[in-house]
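Q: what sequence does this backbone want?
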């Protein structure tokens, strides 16, 4: 599993990617399309057109890692965003890896108990 710390950011390419690419191809996409440094230690996520497969690219300090996941049923949710990429929070990243859809809700926090009792 990819370990995330407080400074690690997760970027998802919003356009589908040919997942036959490996280290060099994905590194080129990070530099050219996402305008990021592939050796930054951040995690870069790429999805195929059908969103049934994803690849992760990250640098651990000594080399690049490429990890792949294929869903046997269903598809990965498409992250919302504009432009070439979007950034995910750690919990959104975890949900994406598990094929779960994250939906933001207004007023998700618990309201004042006194207001509820009244």
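A:
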């Amino acid at each position: 599993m990819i370990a995330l710390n407080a400074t690690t950011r997760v970027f998802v390419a919003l356009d589908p990617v040919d997942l036959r690419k490996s280290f060099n191809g994905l590194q080129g996409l990070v530099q050219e399309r996402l305008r990021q440094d592939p050796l930054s230690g951040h995690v870069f996520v790429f999805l195929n057109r059908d969103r049934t497969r994803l690849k992760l690219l990250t640098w651990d300090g000594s080399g690049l890692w490429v990890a792949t996941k294929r869903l046997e049923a269903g598809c990965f949710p498409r992250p919302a965003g504009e432009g070439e990429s979007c950034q995910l929070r750690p919990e959104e990243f975890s949900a994406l890896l598990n094929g779960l859809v994250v939906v933001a809700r207004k007023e998700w926090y618990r309201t004042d108990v006194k207001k509820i009792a009244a």
